[in-house]
Design goal:
Blueprint: E1 2-9, E2 15-22, E3 25-31, E4 45-56, E5 65-66, E6 73-87, E7 91-98, E8 102-109, E9 115-122
Antiparallel strand pairs: 1-2, 1-6, 2-3, 3-4, 4-9, 5-6, 6-7, 7-8, 8-9
């Protein structure tokens, strides 16, 4: 199974990096907040903006600490495995099973080159 990680990153402003294993790189999207849903709420899904970032090295699946080039620090918020259901140039659908998340993500590319939307639907 393929692995994923979500890192809390404090530079240049606080955000979360969603990283999905693809071959020998991590496809990466910047999120304004973690895709978490309070199980006590009536909500079952969440929509977030996502910015596609350059591919990252596989080391980030396990790494926590300072980022080179004085680019802040990262700490792991979640990690686990995923099953890819659909992948095209404009969309990615996967099932996540992690320490924090268990659900389906749908990433859809928007008009601009790096702008995506992320929908997370929890399995609870």
């Amino acid at each position: 199974m393929q692995q994923y990680v979500i890192l809390r990153h404090d530079h240049p402003e606080l955000h979360w990096d969603l990283m999905l294993e693809e071959g020998d790189v991590l496809k990466t999207w910047r999120l304004p907040q973690p895709p978490e849903i309070d199980p006590a709420s009536d909500e079952t899904s969440l929509d977030l903006t996502a910015e596609a970032l350059p591919d990252h090295r596989m080391v980030y699946l396990e790494y926590e600490g300072p980022v080179s080039g004085d680019r802040g620090e990262v700490s792991r918020w979640d990690r686990g495995t995923f099953t890819l259901l659909e992948r095209s140039e404009d969309q990615l659908v996967a099932l996540l099973t992690g320490e924090e998340l268990a659900g389906r993500i749908t990433l859809k590319k928007q008009d601009s080159e790096n702008r995506w939307t992320l929908n997370y639907t929890a399995f609870f």
